[in-house]
Amino acid sequence: MAKKKHKPKPQALTSGDVLSVKDTKKNLNASKSEDSSAGNDPVYPPFEFPSISPPSIITEGSQGGPWRKKITEFTGTEDEKDFPLWCLDAVLNNRLPPRENTKLSFFLHPCEGSNVQVVTLGKLSAPRILRVHKVTNYVVEKMVLDSPLDSLATDGASVSGGPQQLFAGNGLLTAGSKPWQKLRPSIEILCNNQVLSPEWSLATVRTFVWKKPEDLILNYRVAVAK
């Protein structure tokens, strides 16, 4: 009878034993799978640009940037797309762009419960860039003109400022520094019950405080001593 050949059973490796080819391939595949899973989350060390030669970023695109050119340098071959519409309208159609309205109309009233009265000629008009402290000066000087100085004594500090111009209707009101007595009340200008910063312009007040399409309404009062 022929003897059956028995396959040797795998035995635990001891130091000095050599792995079979099959075991070696199995271990290699396992190590590769571990490497691929580890490559999904690469961790790179922080990168620092050298201070001596910083990097240059170069981009390319089809859109060109703004350009300047003297009118004497034009050859007549330029594309109309290179010119702004207002320029083409002025040159080809002889139409100038409409001027932006630089004036702003507003009303100036005393605060409710205030004893201070200022005589004005109705609606006022002034440049949009006019600062609030110019309106304050106008109020103070109208008070000095129309009221006794003894009735204006307050605990407020003096109001300073150079000459300013306010337009009332079609007339021009000029209020500037004059040799009056040094005692001048401290006036606050308000809009929507908010005390305005002296450095704000009328345009800023209308946009961020008034927030209405109607004419701006400003109120004034003698500053309360703190």
TrEMBL record:
Q: Which GO terms describe its molecular function?
A: ubiquitin binding
Would you kindly state one Gene Ontology biological process term found in this protein's UniProt entry? double-strand break repair via homologous recombination
Using the record for this protein, list the coiled-coil segments as residue ranges, or answer none.
none
Here the segments flagged for biased composition (Polar residues) are 27-39
Which keywords are on file for this protein? Repeat, WD repeat
Residue ranges, annotated region (Disordered): 1-47
Q: Which organism is it from?
A: Brassica cretica (Mustard)
The name on file for this protein is Uncharacterized protein
Q: Does the keyword Repeat apply?
A: yes
